[in-house]
Amino acid sequence: KTPNQPTMLPPILNMGAESHVKVYHTFKSSKKKMLVLHGLQYTNEQFALFKPNKTDFPCDENELDNEKGGSDFVMIGEDFVLIVEVSDLNENDGQQIRSVFTAKEEQGAVTEDLVREMIRSSHKNVVTSPVIQRFCAFPNLSKTSTSNLTAEELSRVILSEDLTHDTNFSAWWEKNVAKTSKTPQGIFKYTKEVLVGLWDYLAFSWWGRVVTNALKPSKETMTHLTKLLIGLWDINSQDDADMEIQP
Q1: Could you write out the DSSP letters of every residue in 107-167?
Q2: Cβ atoms within 10 Å of 56's Cβ, excluding its own
Q3: Full-prediction pTM beyond 0.85?
Q4: Residue 11: its pLDDT value, please?
Q5: What is the 3-class SS of 182-222, one letter each residue?
Q6: How confident is the model at residue 155 (pLDDT cuts 50, 70, 90)?
Q7: What phi and psi values does residue 41 have, to the nearest 5 degrees?
Q8: Which residues neighbour 132 within 8 Å (Cβ) at sequence distance 6 or greater?
Q9: Which end of the chain is more exposed for a tag (fewer CB within 10 A), N or C?
């Protein structure tokens, strides 16, 4: 892997919905320096940990372990995050594109809220935030199926033509992905590692051990991740965890 190629998690994806596999391989072949997570999910409890006050996200104790949200792809660069939801919609159902696009936008908005709260909670004094954008990929739809969308909405859509060749995807990227902000270096490292922690419980899964070995996070970061993942850590308190995952 060259320095300008993305790091994919999981490293291999050849099974599952064809639309997801197509998007995955397009991202994998792109010459972008970023970390790409496929299948991010998080619970009500994990989402609430990043809120400054518990009243900001009231949740019944019986629902803490319920899934709060998730995103198909989260692409993390040094100073940007792209949240991409994927639709299986095909040409025969193209008239549904607006309703599906709206639903996917709402799904991605929850993950965007999570990412912004991560940044806020760990870097309270940062003025310039990383660029965070949401997109919806329709790998089975061509531009002829998008007449119901406005130009502004189309700028947040990835279509089959954009995924056909590396040059097409690069052209789409240059046109639609905002230029990254001048975020202070290192600001985003913590957020990236916590997102990876949410993607996969590091203590218990095979992929998690791969991630740990690849990222080689600091002992302090691993302690934070442990507290988050076992539900013992409120981000506004720095109490010691009862157990730690060793890097």
Answers
A1: HHHHHHHHHHHHHHHH-TT-SSPPEEEEEEEETT--GGG-TTS-HHHHTTEEEGGGGTSHH
A2: 10
A3: no
A4: 79
A5: CCCCCCCHHHHHHHHHHHCCCCCCHHHHHHHHHHCCCHHHH
A6: very high
A7: -135, 155
A8: 80, 81, 82, 83, 112, 115, 116
A9: N
Which tokens belong to 189? 């490292």
> How many Å apart are CA 211 and CA 63, to the nearest integer?
29
Assigned token pair, 205: 């899964």
Instruction: Give me the residue label for tokens 């709206």.
Output: 102
Contact 35, 69 (CB under 8 A): no
- 134 phi, psi to nearest 5 deg: -120, 140
Residues near 194 by beta carbon (within 8 Å), at least 6 away in sequence: 118, 122, 224, 225, 228
Query: Tell me: the pLDDT tens digits for 20-33?
Result: 999 999 999 988 88
Q: Report the candidate in 150, 113, 151 with the shortest Cα–Cα distance to residue 134.
A: 113
Instruction: Identify which of 152, 47, 138 has the alpha carbon closest to the alpha carbon of residue 91.
Output: 138
